[in-house]
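Quick one: sequence plus L6N33NVT SMILES, need structure tokens.
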Amino acid sequence: MKRASGQYNAAMTSPRTAVVLCNLGGPDSLEAVEPFLRNLFSDPDIFQFPAAAFTQGLFARLVAWRRREEASRGYAALGGASPIGANTQDQAWALEQALADLKARVFVCMRYWHPLTGEVVAALKAGGFARVVLLPLYPQYSLTTSGSARNEFLRACARLHYSPDVRFIDSWYEEPDYLDGIAAAIGREAQRFSVPDPARISLLLSAHGVPQRLIRQGDPYQRGIEETARLVRARLAWPRVTLCYQSRVGPLEWLRPYVDDVIREQGREGVDQILVYPIAFVSDHIETLYELGMTYARLAREAGVREYHVVPALNADPALIRALSRLVRTALREER
Ligand SMILES: C=CC1=C(C)c2cc3[nH]c(cc4nc(cc5[nH]c(cc1n2)c(C)c5CCC(=O)O)C(CCC(=O)O)=C4C)c(C)c3C=C
Ligand SMILES: [Fe+2]
Ligand SMILES: [Fe+2]
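Reply:
Sure thing.
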């Protein structure tokens, strides 16, 4: 039940409140790439393994070992580590300031690399936080991201015999400040083209893909992405906007069209200005800076696209922080 109206009132924060920003995490050194991948491929919400956990452990080791070289190339190009930890920490500091009146502490919690969920839950318990808002930095819910973060958080709470009042936030792509922030960021980056005219720019909204099988099983991720794309299109009213998917891993069929196919096709058509916005991400990391910013920049050049730019993720953009702050306040107003 929601409170009918409501100015936030400090008394409502009386139990010690923590906001937990969930993100994927990334290796902080090249040595960490393989163990990070092992954690990722051990996640039952990423790969549902019907057999015993033991078999999943072996599978994770094998796939991590096979993938480590390709993944390391990306992290090496970014200086030997993923910037996702630093970018998420900046978001946490900015959000803590935005919530100063509530005296809420903001924690970063990563799914596959430090600070790992078990470490964060131990700190929350030690700090005596009786109320926790779990806020995944994925605007569109998927079992593989927000769902996985929630499941891991609850497992860690059970392991540590800690039972706070937990408020989960799932999909939040409809937040107006978030959508306004995207439109403004796209508009700013468009100024870098020699002809900064939306009529002359092809805008690609690129989302992280997932296997099509996951969507057939009922995961709402694709619907969330398509809705976000519709809302961004409505705000911009640019003539040429294409939704596509990136970062496919493994042999399965993933959501289409793939961004590399779209770049090649548009190059053949003679498009000479492409702008990419990473619509599933709010923090920069290997998928935006290396995959979109380097690998596909090269591909675009080879395909004959004269100018290609990637819009930075929102990171600690005040518009995003306003959206996150509003989400937390709404979650805290819900009566229990
Ligand atoms: C919306 C966000 C994401 C979804 C959905 C998602 C699904 C998903 N990812 C993999 C496999 C890998 N992902 C990797 C990196 C990675 N993935 C996301 C986000 C989503 N993943 C982020 C933010 C990152 C990068 C973090 C960083 O270190 O900077 C990787 C490792 C890198 C690589 O080898 O390419 C893998 C592997 C699957 C299988 C999946 C859905 C089933
Ligand atoms: Fe991923
Ligand atoms: Fe990926």
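The chain is about 45% helix and 15% strand. The pocket of fe (ii) ion (ligand 2) is lined by residues 208, 247 (CB under 6 Å).
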